[in-house]
Amino acid sequence: MGAAVSILVLLSISVLFIRIASVALRATGLADTSARFQALSAFTGTGFTTSEAETVVNYPIRRKIVSTLMVLGNLGLVSVFATLAASFVHTDAEVSAVLRQLAWLLGGLGILWFLMLNKTADRILCVLIERLLSQVTFLGKRNFHRLLQVGNGYSICEHTIKSEMLDNDGKISNAFFDRLELTPLSVHTAAGEHHVYAEFGDSLVVGDAIVAYGADHSHELFAEKE
Fold first, then answer.
1. pLDDT, tens only, 101-154
2. pLDDT band at residue 30, thresholds of 50, 70 and 90?
3. Who is most buried in 16, 59, 163, 179, counting CB within 10 A?
């Protein structure tokens, strides 16, 4: 029983690490489904060669999160296998002892699996993790999302349009971006549509998101106006 409990504790901690990492990745602007998959891939060391991984490795903060998760994953999996092997060695090959270990292990795995698939439990866990990360890290405190790091000190980021950015005519002028030395690229409307900025810039409204290229400090200045 003791070995089975140890394995379940290690697996529970592993699941917790994966959820913390996925929430942290989501806080950097990664989609929830992508964040979950990339966190699981990094922890297990499988499937991380997909083209989607470029959105992680090209972003310094995401890269640090994933690198930490890879190290924890290797340590965690090694510990689980070592504990599993030791548990059966200590049973002295007694059939009844082996069956008891398996029963405890399978029962615990069933409960853990249920909690992982339970949407309510998952939602509560994510909320708690988000609150913790917002208190002890800067994740979630930025008003913009960095989509891609381009060279040293330059990046492509997404900003949400606020009323303070619009002029008296309800538009955002090119001079606004010129002052910040940012190049607007595209627009994601609040309705979910995607447009090239040059064709849609005059139709921006509050709540739309604009993707722009420029120096990191320019994005910070833009965010101060959000």
1. 677 777 777 877 777 778 888 888 888 888 887 777 766 555 677 777 777 778
2. confident
3. 59
Tokens linked to 198: 């040059």
Question: How far, CA to CA in Å, does 24 sit from each of 58, 111, 136, 139, 144?
Answer: 16, 25, 12, 7, 15
How many beta carbons lie within 10 A of that of residue 153, not counting itself?
Answer: 11
Q: How crowded is the C-beta side of 20, counted as CA atoms within 13 Å?
A: 16
Nearest to 204 by CA among 157, 149, 159: 159
Q: Is the pTM of this model over 0.70?
A: no
Quickly list H helices, the chain: 2-27, 32-44, 54-57, 60-89, 95-117, 119-136, 174-180, 197-200, 216-224
The predicted structure's pLDDT at residue 213: 92
What's 53's DSSP letter?
A: G
DSSP 154-172: EEEEEEE--GGGS-TTS--
- Are the C-beta atoms of 27 and 13 separated by less than 8 Å? no
Closest by Cα among 206, 222, 203, 205 to 214: 222
Nearest CA-CA partner of 6 in 75, 83, 111: 83
